[in-house]
Amino acid sequence: MKRTDCYDLNTNGIVVMVEPYSQREQRNLVIYRILDANLDRAREGLRIIEEWCRFGLNNAQFTGECKGMRQELASWHTADLRSARDTLGDPGTELTHPQEEQRASIKSLLQANFCRVQEAMRVLEEYGKLYNPNMGKALKQMRYRVYTLESNLMGYQRHQLLLRSHLYLVTSPTDKLLEIVEAALKGGLTLVQYRDKNVDDAVRFQQAQKLRQLCHNYNAIFIINDRVDIALAVDADGVHLGQQDMPIAVARQLLGPHRIIGRSTTNADEMQRAIKEGADYIGVGPVYETPTKEGKPAAGLEYVSYVAKNCSIPWFAIGGIDPNNINDVIDAGAKRVAVVRGIMQAEQPTLVTQYFLSQLNRIQPDPDHSYVESNYYPDQW
Predict the structure, then answer these.
(1) Does 291 appear as a known binding residue?
(2) Of 148, 265, 281, 319, which residue has the fewest beta carbons closer than 10 angstroms?
(3) Which InterPro entries match (predicted)?
C-alpha cells in the first residue's frame, strides 16, 4: 500500500514530517506490544514462583513445572514481538498500587504472582488469536496448568504447616473469642479450629470470617468444626469431622484435594478407618474426661500409646489436656496435642500457649513414622 507523508509535532513543539504505518500495521504493532508485555509479565511471575519452589520448598516437581512453562512462553516470544517494545513510551511503567509496594508473607507474594501470571495468560490467549491461532489454544491450556499448579502448591504449603504444628487450639464459646485466639497466635500457635455448636448460622459465618482473616494474618491454619458449607463459604483451610458427621470421601469431593480434613477417633478401629478413608490427621481422645465431650468416657493414655505406635498420619491427643498433665500425655507418646479449656479459659493465653509449645517442641520427630516432616519450615508462608 502506498504511504503518504504527514506532519506532527515532536516533544519540543517543532513540526516534523513523519511517515505513518498503514492502519493494519498500526493495529499489528499494538498487538505485538501487548503480547510482548504480557509474555514478559507471565515469565517474570513464573520465575518468582519457581524460585520459592526451588529454594524455599526444595520441590523438584513444582520447580520443573514452572521452568517448563517459562520455556514454552519463551518459544512464543519471537523477535518481531520484542522489536515492537517501547518501554520509554509505555504509560503503564509509571502506574503502581500501594499493595504492590509490600508483601506481608510468602503466601501473599505467591498469590500475587499467580494472579499476575493468570491475568497475563488470559491476555495472551485472547490477543494471541489475532497473532497466531495456535497461540490462543496453547495459552488457554497453559492457563489451566497454572490454576492447577496454584492449587497444588498452596495445598502443599498448607499440609507442610500442618506437619509443623504441634499445638492445636479448638475454640469454645466466649465473648472474647477473637481476643483469646489472637493472644494464642501471638504465642506461636499455628493451628486453630473454630467450634461453636450453639449459635445460628449467621453468627457462625460472621465469626468464622473474622477468625479466618485473623489466622491468615498470623500465617496459621484455620479449620472449621463439622460444617463443610461454612468452610467453603469463608475459604477455610479445612474441616474437622466427628464420627457422626459426613463421610470423609464426600467432604473431600466438596472441598477438593488440597484442603485439610481431620477426623475424631476414640479407638483403634476408628483410627484405622479414618486413615483408610483419607483423613489428613486425626484427633485422639478424649484422653481425660472433659465437659466438651460430656457423657463420653475417656479413651485414656492407653489409646494415646497405641496410636503413637500404629498411626501413619499426623495426630493430636485431645481432651482435658492442660499445663498440669501435658507431660503425662507426652510421656505416653504424643507429639501433638489439641487444647480447648487450657487456653480458652487461661488468664494469660499467650504465656500458656508458649508453655505448651516449649514442652512439645523439645520432642524429636519419630523416624519410624511413614509420613515425613519437612526439614524446612518457613516462619511465614
Answers:
(1) yes
(2) 148
(3) Aldolase_TIM, ThiamineP_synth_sf, ThiamineP_synth_TenI, ThiD2, TMP_synthase, TMP_synthase_cyanobac_bac
Distance CA 215, CA 334 (A): 25
Q: Is 264 a catalytic site residue?
A: yes
47 catalytic? Reply is no
pLDDT at residue 370, as a whole number: 41
**pLDDT surpasses 70 at 304:** yes
The amino acid sitting at 274 is A
Averaged pLDDT for residues 161-174: 96
Whether 190 shows a pLDDT value over 80: the answer reads: yes
Query: Known binder of ligand: residue 108?
Result: no
Q: Active-site residue 67, yes or no?
A: no
- Of 107, 116, 143, 195, which is the active-site residue? 195
Indicate which residue of 259, 264, 335, 336 is catalytic.
264
CA distances from 234 to 23, 228, 263, 292 (A): 50, 10, 20, 25
Distance from C-alpha of 64 to C-alpha of 236, rounded to nearest angstrom? 29
For the stretch 204-258, pLDDT in tens is 999 999 999 999 999 899 999 999 999 999 999 999 999 999 999 999 999 998 8
Indicate the helix (H) or strand (E) that contains 239.
strand 238-241
Q: Which of 41, 293, 335, 336 is catalytic?
A: 293
Please spell the DSSP secondary structure of 341-376, one letter per residue: HHHHT-SSHHHHHHHHHHHHTTSPP-TTSSS---S-
CATH class of 165-360: alpha beta
Cα distance between residue 161 and residue 224, in whole Å: 17
Using an 8 Å Cβ cutoff, are 166 and 330 in contact?
no
- Cα distance between residue 141 and residue 369, in whole Å: 39
Cβ atoms of 230 and 205 closer than 8 Å: yes
Residue 193 assigned as binding residue:
yes
